[in-house]
Amino acid sequence: MIRSLASPERLWRLLMTGLCFVLFGLGGLLLSQVWFNLLLLCVRNRYTRRRLARRSISVSFRVFLTIARTVGALDYRIYNARTLREEQGCLIVANHPTLLDYVLLASVMPETDCLVKSSLLKNPFLSGVIRAADYLINSEADALLSQSQTRLAHGDTIMIFPEGTRTRPGEKMTLHRGAAHIAVRCHCDIRTVAIRCSEHLLDKQSKWYHVPPTRPLFEATPGERVQIDHFCDVNEQEPARAARQLTRHLLLKLQSVESTFSGLNDASALS
């Protein structure tokens, strides 16, 4: 272990990665305990308050990523970010290789909603953020569909990672059908997003201090907008069957991550 960290550059990235984790946690606490409480006191309209909270989260993520890049902990590129930023009324469905996937996407999507695990409400660094942004909770099954339909009808995007947890390197990707069921029953399109990291960092099988030999590059790019009309006809096909077909289609799209990035260049990336 000592020899593997003998490189001054790698040791520096280890220290800076630790610093970034501390900054991320402190940022979450400050947002939850200070800024969001000020919004609660000063902004009476719930929807305006939610919008400001989500924009604050997006700005905070951009600042975090800029700091992480500046100190050399990582590099990142988000291709065709304008497509994501201008998307409305659809689900954003992405693969989930690392802990930073949501941070990357939300940094360029200041209005996006998100479907989150109920267990995250117990996290002291994230619970206040989730409540202030009024994200959808995956345990509230009875209300989830109607809430999703209402928000999509108002032009919201809802970000979902249908694997349910981070991808295990080397293992076959599997998807839950929740995203497809929402798309079919709310009759909304899906925008697929491919994410990859050049090194093993912050994935399911590594700790934050397992810094790779070279600086990791995180990349994200939107794929096609999947038209829901191609998969279901509310008058002819049962929703469960349509959801199965749509899930298979999404799986094929998300499995071909490497080919998604072929031909992309720095000119189309958000710096």
From TrEMBL:
InterPro entries per record = Plipid/glycerol_acylTrfase
Pathway(s) it belongs to: Lipid metabolism
Highest taxon of the lineage: Bacteria
Q: Which residues form the Phospholipid/glycerol acyltransferase domain?
A: 90-198
Q: What Pfam families does the database record attribute to this sequence?
A: Acyltransferase
Gene Ontology terms for molecular function = 1-acylglycerol-3-phosphate O-acyltransferase activity
Entry keywords, A to Z: Acyltransferase, Membrane, Transferase, Transmembrane, Transmembrane helix
Q: Which CDD domains match?
A: LPLAT_AGPAT-like
Q: Which GO terms describe its biological process?
A: phosphatidic acid biosynthetic process
**Ranges annotated as spanning the membrane:** 12-38
Query: Main EC class of this protein?
Result: transferase
Q: What is its EC number?
A: 2.3.-.-
The protein's name: 1-acyl-sn-glycerol-3-phosphate acyltransferase
